[in-house]
Design goal:
Elements (H helix, E strand, L loop, with lengths): L1 E5 L7 H10 L4 E5 H5 L5 H11 L2 E8 L7 H21 L3 E5 L10 H17 L3 E5 L10 H11 L4 E6 H6 L15 E6 L9 H8 L10 H10 L5 E4 L4 H5 L2 H22 L14 E8 L2 H13 L3 E5 L5 E6 L2 E6 L5 H9 L2 E9 L2 H10 L4 E2 L12 E3 L5 E6 L3 H8 L2 E2 L9 E10 L5 H11 L2 E3 L3 E5 L2 E10 L12 E7 L5 H9 L3 E9 L2 H10 L9 H11 L3 H9 L3 E5 L2 E7 L8 E8 L6 H12 L8
Helix pairs in contact: 1-3, 1-11, 3-4, 5-6, 9-11, 11-16, 19-20
This protein binds 3,4-dihydroxybenzoic acid and magnesium ion.
The site of magnesium ion (MG) has 4 residues, from loops.
Length: 627
């Protein structure tokens, strides 16, 4: 696959964009004319910079509104085009993108369009240049790639070919099977964009909501499979108009694009029963441990909450200031070492989650997949006899340790030989249900792609949740149901981000100095027993107001006694076609991280209906200086 990206897709000045693109290993770049117009360098200098960076210039774009014009306007457009040829010469590309005409004055008679396209192709040919004709989804007459292809085919001039752009085709639900009619040698370039399914006009949808392959909802794999079936071997070029990306980090967005393209190319081949190009997605069996970085004072604070939730400190590390807490299948590790990653984390964030241990069957496969997707590995020096667990960088610089499923018991026994208390036999919490991470709104799609490309995860639709101080966006990534060994429970993460300056997730980012784990939900089989026990043990509960329960009773027709018991323990409830959900929350430790206990009865979601009630309850505790 030859990779490319349009400069419009990322933030910065043109030269900053080019260096970010080159640093992420793209083969080529589409130069967007607006970026060139506002650049401090001449087209010739930009061409030279591209060459120095090792980037081909795949094309210059766009050229607008040509076919179907009146003769005088057409002559002016041809003059404009000749000037572009000179710019292309300077940039070092022979290709320019020609958008289908969007002018209300353009005529749509086929004979006229054929004649105009033949004419401009002739002019281009005389200058050794080529045109890639693209059906914009909102083109006045040509807005379907099948019509654009029919014109290109019938003009049959070597200087005229087609652009396919997945956004324009899939936003109009044009069947990808129609790509089978296109001749690969006439397909000059393919532009890629994913997008969320939205009900809005095509132009605004395209200009603001495109995203990297894998970040949206479009059936891109089928599109890619059709391209590969016809033998297309030109550029796979990203063209992503997205407000968040323009405000984000050029280098991260460029990296996400490569990641999305690689996975897409691989999946497109697999759909055609071709050999996989990437190591298989990682399918973790579950969360083996959650590691907290904490000073001794913070460790005491966490310890109080862990005790109240029914955990016991069961072991001390053989050489480090690290304690293992356990209950059911859950391991929490508090790391108070005076140096190393945990210590750095504690210095930056205060008491926080610095690592998650995931149990995997194939450590090396996971490492290889991560390497192929440009996910950083982490290693810190360990004593010669110490257990070396490979680790990958995740949200906010935290780690995913890849724990080998076959040796995990030996790992615990060897690393934590100093028994402290016995694990409680009557513990009520069984496993980690989900882990909620909060991040900058601009980074949200990047982390979404991280999870869905590294792991064998699917994503749920994005939800908008009302915080009293603004809207929070929330989306879950989860292992495919049933793919997790053992209890058959999926591994679940929820991602949260907000643009609102004082919403809880933004307050978290400020207090925490960065992205990270904001809450952890534990599963249990009897939420009333778990809540009663936690209450007796002194867990600071998040209080839910009385109106919630009055509404709950009415909304679901629940038994008044049941609702009264829920109210007594601040338990919230949700129900859908699959089943029922019960949940309660602790107050936040150090105003940052908090804990949730859930019981699922067939239910597969996260109680989104309750999230705004929870956010309101939490907002009541925010610092007065925060307004
Ligand atoms: O939104 C546009 O105008 C526009 C321009 C060029 C493209 O390739 C495209 O897909 C859209
Ligand atoms: Mg396009």
């Amino acid at each position: 696959m030859k990779t490319s990206i349009a400069t419009i897709s990322i933030s910065g000045t043109l030269v900053e964009k080019l260096s970010a693109i080159a640093s992420r290993g793209y083969d080529a770049v589409e130069i967007f004319e607006n970026d060139l117009l506002s650049a401090a360098q001449s087209a010739k200098e930009i061409g030279a910079i591209c060459r120095d960076l090792g980037l081909e210039v795949a094309m210059l774009q766009p050229f607008r509104d040509y076919e179907g014009l009146s003769p005088d306007l057409r002559a002016r457009a041809e003059e404009r085009m000749r000037r572009k040829f000179a710019v292309m010469e300077d940039l070092g590309t022979d290709l320019i993108l020609l958008c289908s005409n969007c002018s209300p004055h353009a005529v749509g008679e086929r004979d006229v369009l054929l004649e105009d396209l033949a004419r401009i192709a002739g002019i281009a040919g005389e200058h050794d240049k080529r045109l890639a004709y693209e059906a914009l989804a909102w083109g006045t007459h040509i807005n379907d790639h099948r019509d654009a292809w029919a014109l290109v085919r019938d003009v049959d001039h070597p200087a005229l070919g087609l652009t396919l752009d997945s956004f324009h085709s899939l936003s109009r639900n044009i069947p990808s099977a129609s790509i089978g009619d296109i001749r690969a040698d006439k397909l000059f370039i393919v532009q890629w964009a994913d997008a969320p399914i939205l009900q809005m006009d095509l132009l605004n949808w395209s200009r603001h909501f495109r995203c990297m392959p894998g970040q949206g909802d479009f059936p891109l794999v089928e599109f890619g499979a059709q391209l590969r079936r016809i033998g297309y071997d030109g550029y796979w070029s990203l063209e992503i108009f997205n407000d968040r990306f323009r405000a984000g980090s050029a280098s991260s967005v460029a990296r996400d694009g490569i990641r999305g393209l690689k996975v897409l190319h691989d999946q497109s081949g697999i759909a055609l029963r071709r050999a996989a190009e990437l190591p298989a997605p990682v399918a973790p069996q579950g969360v083996e441990f959650i590691e907290f970085a904490a000073s001794h004072a913070e460790a005491e604070e966490f310890g109080r909450i862990f005790h109240a939730l029914g955990f016991a400190p069961v072991g001390r590390h053989r050489s480090k200031d690290v304690v293992r807490w356990q209950q059911g299948g859950i391991n929490l590790v508090i790391n108070s070492e005076p140096e190393g990653l945990a210590h750095s984390f504690d210095m930056v964030h205060g008491g926080s989650v610095c690592a998650l241990g995931l149990t995997v069957d194939d450590q090396q496969g996971a490492i290889d997949r991560a390497a192929a997707l440009d996910i950083d590995r982490f290693a810190q020096s360990v004593a010669p006899d110490e257990w070396q667990i490979p680790a990958l960088r995740g949200v906010g610089g935290s780690l995913f340790y890849l724990v080998d499923g076959a040796t995990r018991d030996a790992m615990w026994a060897e690393e934590f030989p100093h028994a402290l208390e016995q694990a409680k036999q009557d513990g009520l919490l069984t496993s980690v249900d989900h882990i909620a991470q909060t991040m900058q709104y601009e980074e949200f799609l990047g982390w979404l792609l991280y999870y869905t490309s590294l792991f064998d995860f699917t994503k749920t639709p994005q939800l908008e949740i009302a915080d009293p101080m603004g809207i929070v966006y929330s989306q879950a990534v989860e292992s495919r149901a049933g793919s997790v060994a053992g209890a058959g429970k999926p591994l679940r993460f929820t991602l949260n981000g907000s643009m609102a300056a004082n919403a809880l997730s933004t307050r978290f980012l400020h207090n925490y100095f960065g992205a990270g784990v904001q809450h952890i939900a534990f599963a249990c089989d009897d939420i009333f027993a778990a809540a009663a026990k936690a209450k007796d043990a002194g867990l600071p509960f998040l209080a839910v107001g009385p109106n919630y329960y009055a509404d709950l009773e009415a909304r679901f027709g629940l038994d008044a006694d049941l609702v009264a018991r829920m109210a007594e323990h601040n338990i919230m409830y949700d129900r859908d076609d699959n089943g029922e959900y019960f949940q309660f929350y602790s107050r936040a430790v150090a105003k940052r991280i908090f804990f949730e206990v859930v019981q699922r009865r067939g239910y597969d979601a996260y109680g989104a209906a309750n999230a705004s009630v929870r956010l309101s309850a939490q907002a009541a505790h925010r610092d007065p200086v925060d307004f």
